[in-house]
């Protein structure tokens, strides 16, 4: 974040990364997760990949999605405060599993940092 002078989004970014990482670590069957950070179009894009494959059975998928959403309630609150977006779905990279993502608009993240 320092290399790109994103000091004003640090508070929100740390909260978002922490929530995504905690959830991914609970779901992944392996001992690793993959984090991606990108800044473009005045927003920080955070993606976290875990090795938990998406369920093909409809009820299992719904139950798993519900559990993931409940674990990410704080993330949802942060994203609402920052006027951002988040979600999750299947991932083909870096291997089969689930990709959870968040988009933090710089303006909203800046305001979150002042309110924290």
DSSP summary: helix tally: 4
**β content, as a range?**
25-35%
Low confidence ranges? none
Order of helices and strands: HEEHHEEH
Query: Largest sheet, described in full?
Result: 4 strands, antiparallel
Shape field: globular
Q: How helical, in percent, are the residues?
A: 40-55%
Strand arrangement across the biggest beta sheet = 1-2-4-3
What's the end-to-end separation, in Å? Answer: 18 Å
Indicate the structural class.
alpha+beta
Radius of gyration: 14 Å
Could you state the oligomeric state of the chains shown? single chain
Mean pLDDT across the residues is: 86
What is the β-strand count? Answer: 4
Brief write-up:
The chain has 116 residues and is of the alpha+beta class. It has helices at residues 10-27, 58-71, 73-81, 106-115, and strands at 34-40, 43-50, 85-91, 97-105.
Describe the model.
The structure is a single chain. The chain has 116 residues and is an alpha+beta fold. It is 44% helix and 27% strand. The chain has four helices and four strands. The chain has helices spanning 10-27, 58-71, 73-81, 106-115, and strands at residues 34-40, 43-50, 85-91, 97-105. Strands 1-2-4-3 form a four-stranded antiparallel β-sheet. It is globular, with a radius of gyration of 14 Å. The mean pLDDT is 86.
What is the strand and helix layout of this fold?
Blueprint: H1 10-27, E1 34-40, E2 43-50, H2 58-71, H3 73-81, E3 85-91, E4 97-105, H4 106-115
Helix pairs in contact: 1-3, 1-4
Provide tags for this entry.
alpha+beta, 116 residues, globular
């Amino acid at each position: 974040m320092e290399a790109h002078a994103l000091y004003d989004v640090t508070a929100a970014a740390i909260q978002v990364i922490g929530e995504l990482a905690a959830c991914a670590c609970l779901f992944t069957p392996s001992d690793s997760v993959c984090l991606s950070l990108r800044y473009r179009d005045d927003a920080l894009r955070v993606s976290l990949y875990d090795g938990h494959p998406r369920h093909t059975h409809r009820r299992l998928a719904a139950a798993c999605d519900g559990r993931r959403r409940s674990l990410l309630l704080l993330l949802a609150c942060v994203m609402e405060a920052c006027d951002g977006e988040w979600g999750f779905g299947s991932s083909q990279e870096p291997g089969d599993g689930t990709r959870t993502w968040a988009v933090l608009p710089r303006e909203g993240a800046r305001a979150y940092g002042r309110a924290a």
